[in-house]
Structures are given as C-alpha cells and as structure tokens.
Amino acid sequence: MSAAYPSLVALAVSLASAVAAIAGGQTAEPQVLEKLRALGRASAGVTTMRAHFEQTKHLSIVKDVLRSSGTFLLDKRGRVAWDVTEPEPIRVLITRDGVFAAGKRVAGGAGAPAALSPLPMLEGLNGIFAGVSEATAVDFEVRFLASDRLRLTPRSPRLAEWVSHIEIRLGGEARIPIDVRLEEPGGDVTEIAFRDVVVNPPLDDAAFAP
Hints:
Elements: H1 4-18, H2 30-43, E1 48-59, E2 64-75, E3 79-86, E4 90-95, E5 98-101, E6 104-107, H3 119-129, H4 136-139, E7 140-146, E8 149-154, H5 157-160, E9 165-171, E10 176-183, E11 189-199
Antiparallel strand pairs: 1-2, 1-11, 2-3, 3-4, 4-5, 5-6, 7-8, 8-9, 9-10, 10-11
C-alpha cells in the first residue's frame, strides 16, 4: 500500500470517528470573530478548488518521513479528492457516502455507526481547505499568529485525541489556505503545501468518482 495511505486515509478515518462529540456553542474573542468574518467574506465565493499538493508527514516514534504529492480537488457541497501520484498512484475520496481509498470504502456509508460518519469531518475539511470563517471558532479556539497565519486548537476533547493543533497560512484574494500543518498528540506532524491553486474550476461528478 502506498506510503500516502497512512497520511491521508488513516487521519481521515480517525477524524471521522473522533468528531462525533464535537463541542458546539463556543465563541471567540470579539476581535478574533471580526477577523474571521472578514476572511469568511473573502472566501465566500469559493465553491470548488483544484491545486497541486505536496505532503510531508514526520513520524515521531520511528523518526521517519513520508512524502506524497498529487492533485487536490474540493467541492464545497461535501466532496474532497486527493489524487496521489507520488510515491504510488492512489485516489483518496471523502464524500457524504463515506471515505474511499483505491476504489474501496474504508469508512462511513449506509449502515455505518454514526460515530464513523464522515460528514462532520467533511465540514471541518471544507472549513480548513476552502477558507476559514466565523464558523471555524465553533469547533476550534482560534489564535492569529500573523495577518495571514492562524493556529487552531480543537475545543472537543475527543477531537483533541487526534489533532492537537492546526496551523494555516492563507494566500490569494480569496484568502484560502496554502500551507496547512497538523500536529498530532503523539508527536507526528503532517505538513501540506498547496501550489498552482485554481479557484472555482469546473468540476463534474466524474472528478469525484471513487
């Protein structure tokens, strides 16, 4: 199995089960909310996205580094596709019907336990990859490190079991993430860089086929 599999799929499945108990109703400081509203307005017109991605995952226990790259596709209606080309071709698809890898369902879908539903995780991914907004403060404590850099800390203890912090660097007129860093409690760190970003490209259903 591709080295990209644990980096993309395992994290997706873990988050899908973890977000069942996301804490809601939390609010941020007024100045933080105002900045998030401005970012939300900037990214409100983003409906689809295509980009080249390069991912590096640093494994703390074995002191190893996993690298992968390929094409990232996003549809704000609830579909995300990672078409990995290196080190080995594999497609990871995340939709409301489940999480798929290499054409096989690995989580979610009809009859799956509610705790494994990928929908909340999908909404979280849309919030991260399609642009942050005021809604981001519901599930995360938000701290601005700079005008274009944010650090997110999960409010839910259950989600915090899988992700300690998420750092995002924003770019472009739509203020969408171009660099994302996910820190896990065990010390593993995943860094994703998006390049050659195209906002609102035409994407049909075939682009998100398993």
